[in-house]
Amino acid sequence: MKFMIQAGGILGALAVSLGAFGAHALKGMLEASGRTETFETAVKYQFYHALAMVLVGILMQRAGEDAVRMLGWAGNAFAIGVIIFSGSLYAICFTGITKFGATAPIGGVALIVGWVLLILAAGKF
After folding, report:
1. What global pTM score does this model have?
2. Residue 29: CB atoms within 10 Å
3. Where in the sequence is the signal peptide annotated (predicted)?
4. Shortest CA distance to 101 belongs to which of 81, 85, 78?
5. Among 45, 30, 123, 26, which residue's Cα sits nearest to residue 83?
6. CA–CA distance from 25 to each of 36, 45, 47, 89 (Å)?
7. pLDDT tens digit string along 16-27?
8. How far is 62 from 21, CA to CA, in rounded Å?
9. Torsion angles phi and psi, residue 69, rounded to 5
10. Are 75 and 51 in contact, with CB atoms under 8 Å apart?
């Protein structure tokens, strides 16, 4: 519970930091490579799911045992999804190696699984 909120907070702080870094220090590089939109997508998805992890942590404090277990899986799926999805987009932006994009759908599936698990956990309240 506490860990999920803290992990969400860390991912959120990193998203804000990366967003600011991209908008200022990396602006020229991202524009030159045509990757501004890719970088913004990575930051947005990281931030949305950081908030989702905080929500999961809060819900875990109020849920019964079955729901807590499922919420934990949901939060883990969000974390894995952010690492793989946003991480692959960041890797494309920083390296120019577009093959990293092949892993983005795996991260996207993990994010979707997290939302489905959150829905299922809500049914156990």
Report:
1. 0.95
2. 15
3. none
4. 85
5. 45
6. 12, 21, 20, 18
7. 999 999 999 999
8. 37
9. -60, -45
10. no
- Which residue is listed with tokens 């919420």? 71
Q: Which of 89, 77, 69 is nearest to 49 (CA)?
A: 77
DSSP string covering the chain, please? -HHHHHHHHHHHHHHHHHHHHHHHTTHHHHHHHT-HHHHHHHHHHHHHHHHHHHHHHHHHTTS-HHHHHHHHHHHHHHHHHHHHHHHHHHHHHHH--GGGGGGHHHHHHHHHHHHHHHHHHHTT-
Q: Write out the DSSP string of 53-77.
A: HHHHHHHHTTS-HHHHHHHHHHHHH
What are the tokens at 92?
């494309």
* Cα 115 versus chain centre, distance: 12
For residue 100, count other CB atoms closer than 10 A to its CB.
17
Distance CA 22, CA 17 (A): 8
